[in-house]
Fold this protein.
Amino acid sequence: MFPSIIKVIKRRKYHYLIKQSGIRDIDRMEGYQFEEYLKVLFKSLGYRPMVTKKSGDYGADVILKGKNKIVIQAKRYGYKHNVSLDAVREVFASKYYYKADEAWVITNSFFTKQAKELAKSCDVKLLNHYELEKFILKINPEQSPEEVVRGKESIK
């Protein structure tokens, strides 16, 4: 009896996290909106974020300047589409192009086994769906994902 109660509590807690984090709104974003939302998140942490141009960005979608310089490859995918090792390769290359200290790939989805292995060997930080939810809740930014989705025209 107790295991089923624990499962119910865990499921409710998970659904609460989904609602609070706004991850479902992120799932409805366009790729560029997701990059803009990451800019909002990191700005609230004190970074000076910059979204790169839509093409010819050398593998970085967002560049963070602060104590460290961080390049981020943002992948806003459907829930069942995993991020491949190509994203890791691109952001790893951009780390050297932009002379950054760190390279990250952030997604609302998950990573393939090969992407995880390459990231580990290249020291690229990966944030998947669950880690992104926790990150958003920890930061608690002023602008929610829903506001970014609704203000689609204002961020372009």
About this structure: The first strand starts at residue 48 and ends at 51. Strands lie at 48-51, 62-65, 69-75, 102-107, 125-127. The chain has one domain: 2-150.
